[in-house]
Amino acid sequence: MSQPPVKLVFASDDPAAALGSDPALEGAAGVEVVGVASSVDELTSLVTRHQPDVIVIDYDVPGLNATETTRAVLLQDATIQVIMLSLVNDADDVRHAMRAGARDYLIKPLQPGELVETVRWLIDERREYARMQAFVDQMRRAYDALFSDDKPIPPKVVAFLEAQAADSPDDRLAQEALAVAYARNRDWEKLAPLAARLAEAETG
């Protein structure tokens, strides 16, 4: 299933310079610039209106405190990925930006494609984290269902445990969880060979 385009907002006092910061941005597949803000108020308004995935903040804009702006944005939506752009490669500036919650700090002038690649990398990382969180939550629900009461294990949970056991044949925890599910459901036909394998692994 195709992913929706990554929505990007710039915080800069020079829209033309912001949009031209990376020549690869124009026409970049899967990336859509939805606005440029020159103040914190404009930026928070754009965040409310467009719910962007990424905000690129020009660290060098006079009167715009980039670190405070970052904190304000992340307080509004903690899932936003913030990228700083600056002409100056100053270690203190980088440290302050990262402590405020920025995910990357790029030095201008950018290499062609540098910003687009950074945006895609951050979004891919965020999506992978979300996928892993969903997996962990599903695992937690499955194990809770196993040990919370004596009711039969729902077929969907059993199917999930079977898939995990098949994907990780050497993971004893996954195999034992499946064995518990079979036992709770009185599925002796499936439990017997699994229990035998577990016993063999224990003695072997």
Task: Please identify the structural class as seen in this structure.
Answer: alpha/beta
| DSSP helical segment count | 8
- What's the story with the biggest beta sheet? 5 strands, parallel
Strand percentage lies at 5-15%
What is the CATH homology-level superfamily of the largest domain? Response regulator
**Which value, in Å, is the CA radius of gyration?**
25 Å
Task: Bin the helical content.
Answer: 55-70%
Domain count, please report it: 2
Structural account:
With 204 residues, the protein is of the alpha/beta class. It has two domains: 123 residues, Rossmann fold (3-Layer(aba) Sandwich), CATH 3.40.50.2300; 55 residues, no CATH class. 55% of the residues lie in helices and 14% in strands. It contains eight helices and five strands; from the N terminus they run βαβαβαβαβαααα. A five-stranded parallel β-sheet has the order 2-1-3-4-5, sandwiched between helices. Strand 4, helix 4 and strand 5 form a beta-alpha-beta unit. Helix 2 runs parallel beside helix 3, helix 6 packs antiparallel against helix 7 and helix 7 runs antiparallel to helix 8. The longest helix has 34 residues. The radius of gyration is 25 Å and the shape is elongated. The two termini are 44 Å apart. The model has no long low-confidence stretch (mean pLDDT 89).
